[in-house]
Amino acid sequence: AAAEKGGYDYFMLKEIAEQPRAVADTLLGRFTEQGWIMLDEVRLSDQDLRDVDKVFIVACGTAYHAGMVAKYAIEHWTRIPCEVELASEFRYRDPVLDRSTLVVAISQSGETMDTLMALRHAKDQKARVLAICNTNGSTIPRESDAVLYTHAGPEVAVASTKAFLTQLVACYLVGLHLAQVRGVKFADEVAAVVSQLQAMPAAVEAVLETMEPVRHLARELAAAGSVLFIGRHVGYPVALEGALKLKELAYMHAEGFAAGELKHGPIALIDQGTPVVCVVPSPVGRGVLHDKMVSNLQEIRARGARTIVIAEEGDEAVTPYADHLVRVPVTPTLLAPLVATVPLQVFACEIAAARGHDVDQPRNLAKSVTVE
Ligand code: G6P
């Protein structure tokens, strides 16, 4: 078993370390020399894709958080309305679907029963279903009209890490492809994103190389009663994912919030020393968001929070409000979850280990949930 873990103590650590390769493999062979997205396995004609007037993303757990990020990217690049919904809620709500709806089902295992039931419901309503999946020939891709495989390789640890990053990549590819096929409003931006995506494996690698202080901090905080996570825009799903990892692995109370919602309730939770992980948007591009986050930081700091700030290199505005500062490489806003999530994975893994838990096999959880 030690050999299977490639020298790491846990599969999760091995899988975290494999992320640059997983991201690179998921990008491999999916671009033409001219920078066009080429998704040959997606057996939906360009005409089908041009007819899409609504996108619904369905998924569970970590895959749902990837879907939340996808919504920001797909709507921005394609201007097609996109909703994301927990698979377990989707079909019981009687969603409005038809032939021109594209339903994207995201699942690492391809066997999650709630997601499978959601896709069957979508097909009954004549929607077209595209699966984003990590497991060749599993049920969800077999029952879908089309599939885009993530190439994370087998994921063994129950808590998803490399599969999540590759789900993000697949979602970006779907968004960019839809944008290109439909004739883009943001053609220049899409072309730029295509080249920025190619730089992401190196960016993830750079984050991994700077994780020692995060491990140290995790050990310091291992006895905390609760940890809060806040983010804005695509940083919001990253905050939710950070909190989910901590619940799954460390059995700690952890909650993620949209930073703008703080004042509507969650700020009452903040007490002297409450650890709050803040996923700060890039100051470049969407500067307004960044400034709003800096005021959130000020507010929670004033109420006693111990702030753990994930911010871009060179973002000095956050420094006065950060008890702990984790730097990530400068990354376009929509792609930032690929780098911002990594420290949160390391953080949760290390806290769980410090608390003496089985990182790879958390209590009460299964790698794939094949009951509804
Ligand atoms: C379980 C796993 C999670 C995973 C979720 C969805 O809850 O513990 O890590 O995110 O299922 O799994 P899927 O295979 O559909 O991505």
Automatic annotation (TrEMBL):
Record field: catalytic activity: D-fructose 6-phosphate + L-glutamine = D-glucosamine 6-phosphate + L-glutamate
Location relative to the cell: Cytoplasm
Function: Catalyzes the first step in hexosamine metabolism, converting fructose-6P into glucosamine-6P using glutamine as a nitrogen source.
Active site feature: 367
A GO biological process held by the record: carbohydrate metabolic process
Gene: glmS
Domain SIS: 45-184, 217-362
Keyword Ribosomal protein: no
EC number, UniProt record: 2.6.1.16
The protein, known as: Glutamine--fructose-6-phosphate aminotransferase [isomerizing]
UniProt lineage: Bacteria, Bacillati, Actinomycetota, Actinomycetes, Micromonosporales
Annotated organism of origin: Natronosporangium hydrolyticum
GO cellular component: cytosol
Record key words, sorted: Aminotransferase, Cytoplasm, Glutamine amidotransferase, Repeat, Transferase
Shown residues within the full chain: 263 to 634 of 634
The UniProt record lists the keyword Cytoplasm: yes
GO molecular function, one term: carbohydrate derivative binding
Self-association state and partner proteins as the record states: Homodimer.
Top-rank EC class of the record's enzyme: transferase
